[in-house]
User: Fold these one by one.
Assistant:
Number 1:
Amino acid sequence: MTPLLTDRPEWQALVHHYEAVRDLHLRDLFAADPSRGPRLTIEAEGIAFDYSKHRVTDETLRLLLALADACDVRGRFEAMFRGDVINVTERRAALHVALRAPRTASIVVDGVDVIPAVHEVLDRMSTFATQVREGSWRGHTGRPIRNIVNIGIGGSDLGPRMAYEALRAYADPALTVRFLSNVDGADFIEATRGLDAAETLFIVCSKTFTTLETMTNARTARDWLLAALGDPAATSRHFVAVSTNEDAVRAFGIDPANMFGFWDWVGGRYSMDSAIGLSLMLAIGARQFGELLEGFRSIDEHVRTAPLERNIPVLMALLTIWYTGCFGVETHGVMPYAQYLASFPAYLQQLTMESNGKRVTAEGKAIPYPTGPVVWGEPGTNSQHSFFQLLHQGTRLVPVDFIGFRRAVEDVGEHQDLLTANLFAQAAALAFGRTPEELRDRGVPERLVPHRASEGNRPSSVLLLDRLTPAALGQLIALYEHRVYVEGVLWDIDSFDQWGVELGKEIAGQILPALRGETSTTAYDSSTAALIERYRTARER
Ligand code: F6P
């Protein structure tokens, strides 16, 4: 039986050490070691990861790495890459790394090498994307496709949506690409507003092909299309599916020839580089989609080969364990200094919180220590003018990841320098703050000194990449995927299931007939029953 994290001697050594270093200030750590900045920076695969502004000493890092060793992080990576059943509650491999493995690789699951199938789907996607982009895939009336609407939710939406926004500058401007996820009819209205059905392709993305929101939106989209084109045969030229469930795809009326498959060993939130990324491939083309996969692959190589102390996702994860477990940190900020990455924090919310928001171990034992923090964020510099006040002077400790780029996707005057100056300034201000003495020396009136003082000692990492390219985006996503895995290994949780989201879905299914007046409300608690009655009365009126 795997020992609980907190029962391990390496953890107890870390907690003991925490008592000795908890009040050390980053100002002093930097003063004591003039080379701390470059010394605590890792350069790998064109990325610089500066973790010097964290509240760690060399001893902290040694103890965290000893913990990683005790939890067999290296062995657990090998298990993942080998295709072992690491999603234990669902008895499956979690093999998203196979999605970007080269053609020459071989990963055997249940006696079958999965790599040929991965590349067969990639090749079909590429042929289809080229046909649509070049106009040889025509709509029912013979017109070329100009609009793509991706219908999906959660992992079947957030990844391609985020990546499309991030790589907009690389997309074919002649194509309109939209994402429809919410069962709120407003989302449907806005996603289809102004589109000509004869030029619109819907990609129905759903691993299970049973998700309420997606199937409702897909049916509404089909009605919308048929109302405009008037011929049920039109569906075959205007709907394709991405799913693992061929029977359900066929039952919906989509020809399996127009279905792009993936496999149960790809978790929804780890699927954006599978066929779930079809809308992105349509937008940026197969070649640039291939570059995205190369970015993922370079980080897969890095996590497998770099020693743990030079391994970026491992260090990112160990820092999370340190802050949540010892400092009691509850949330973690991710601030991309790139407007194109505006949706990256939302994407990470599913990736990290659906993976590690768990309260039992993989073996089902109650966990007595905090697990995944709340992840949140917004692009800088906008966020500086909204919630950064709390980061600088609030009563909570919020570690932050700053993500920046040396070069802009498109240079506009001196904007990139201004953006980057702000990123570096925020990281420094959080770390070093401004003391009352410094304020007095600057002539600040005494009554304002307490208000203006910033205590500093607020930790952050800086991830500096060259330019937001498809490959760089692949690298960023893979860094966080692997970070989540290492955190899960240390907390001993199954990072690949999501049982917690099932209960609400089940109850919604029961409430729906009551809302329609088909069943009584007596089975519900008094609050839910009264809400249903109130809604029903208003609807009837
Ligand atoms: O509700 C959670 C969830 O199961 C996610 O894990 C998943 O990404 C999403 O729903 C969508 O599921 P599907 O791709 O099967 O429609």
Number 2:
Amino acid sequence: MEDVFIIRGGKPLKGEVLLSGAKNVALKTIIAALLFDSKVVLKNIPRISDVFELVHLIKKLGVWAEFIDQNTLEIDNSALQNNKVDLLHASKIRASFLLFAPLLHRVGECFIPNPGGCRIGERPINRIIDGMKELGISVEYDSNTGYYFAKMKDGPKRGYSFPKSTHTGTELLILLSVFGRGKILLENAAQEPEIDELIEFLNQAGARIERHGRKIAISGVKKLVQVKPYKIHSDRNEAITFAALGVASKGDVVIKPIAPELINAFITKTKETGSGVEIISRGAVRFFYKSKIKPVDVETSIHPGFMTDWQPNWAVLMTQSTGDALIHEKVFENRFSYVKELRKLGAKIKFVNREVENPSEFYFFNHSERKRYQQAIKIHGGYPLHGGALRIADLRAGASLVLAALIAKGVSVVIGASILERGYEEVVNKILRLGGDIKKI
Ligand code: EPU
């Protein structure tokens, strides 16, 4: 297997894209299903390799999990017994540390390796471990084995206030607080819509979780029982990739189903470029090229800001603009792996310094005065892209390289197709349906 996309670019892409279920909801609901006292049926689960890795991981814990049709996964956790999570498979997916919740709930103690995922920064879990301790769980890390050992100690305390936002950290603390007698309050909790979907899924099964802005209150319940199958909403990261493709290729793409408010920050910025955005209905949005694309700066942020996962796609769009655009990354400290690859296609991009008054408050990662960071780039638009050989380093960078190759005149070879397939379902077929010229070898 070559693990390569061969792309002949330069054509406007046109048509409709039926979006897949969200990776970052699918993974979390599969893990949350292990807390239930009933079988769980999840619909619209994308067939992507991160999901396959996770299914493999939970099967090794004794859980029964099978696709009963193309995108419906059934999970029965009644035989869950093993409390040590497989190192190899856990190291491939970031969400694996959420397994603390079901294993502590069902077995009382567990061994979980340091989580994996895309190498887009150091990605420590200090805030999360502190939060677990505040909830009455003892956690120790063994640097010889790379495993955390966690044990339920006194049972949940009153709550935790996150020093800085963490998306998966908020999800783990919710899952750890679902059962019990008291009320747990999480403060300064993250607000990503994927978290609210997890809450919706749990509440449908009897949980009592309420959000008031950045506060989440969880009243303990005795058990979770699924009353009807749960259908995962569309992936807003996949949505953005195809939206950017529609505009940047001088084409016209309708994405659906998607609630426009979930991608509001992207819609606003795209309108500022002078490109066409039409909300066709509550569930479909059209993105199309109108005339010259104006350069527009973005600064990434937590929800409801411009999402970090979208900026690699934005960079490609800005290579097609008429001037200079700046991207300032605030959430992760290593999310520009695509820059040197885009340069191979003729893109003019340079790293720039942006002075920030109080960096440890401004950035969402743990900023250190002793380290040098490269958090901003300037893209000089107006240089046509040509074909080249590219290498994917992480998932969202991978989407941007495929996007760039589809816009570039000539043939490109994009190495690392399997990294993109960690999070994008049927990507080749979706591009072919829009008239793109792509094959995987
Ligand atoms: N952080 C810490 N300590 C912690 C937790 C987070 O320093 O204890 C730092 C992170 O290293 C990062 C920042 O805080 O610099 C924000 O991290 P957060 O915990 O919010 O991100 P995450 O949960 O690791 C999830 C998604 C990412 C997405 C971000 C932002 C999953 C599995 N991952 O990451 O998705 O970019 O939230 O919404 O849900 C992707 O799908 O490709 C992806 C990377």
